[in-house]
Amino acid sequence: MARARRGQGELEGQVLGALREAGGPVTAAWVQERLGGDLAYTTVVTILTRLLAKDVVARERRGRAFLWTPTADVARLAALRMRRLLDGERDREAVLASFVTALPPGDEQVLRALLETAGPGRVNSWNTAHTDHGGTED
Known about the structure:
Layout: H1 10-22, H2 28-35, H3 41-53, E1 57-62, E2 65-70, H4 74-87, H5 92-101, H6 105-117, H7 120-130
Antiparallel strand pairs: 1-2
Helix pairs in contact: 1-2, 1-3, 2-3
């Protein structure tokens, strides 16, 4: 029976999750063993290298091997994937508008609260460009 193909980014999330559970720097072989299954060592190293390029893991040489440590969580990795998708679109405003209007009410409230508590430069520059505050900021 053929094995089901993983979703995009799923393996990266699993590798990062394993690193976060490790409690300290670990080798690629440790990650491979932790994930189990038929995952090749070279696949684990490839995923770790991709995560390094995304700046969500760090590595240090220890003898002939590298020890890997997470520098971010799975939420940050998901946010990076979302950002990469958004960066690939021409009409960012349309994509964001479509995203926001498709959110369930609970998620929309969470997003609004996060935008309100975000750094002033980010939210206020967006508010100034997209809404009429009469020249004042709240």
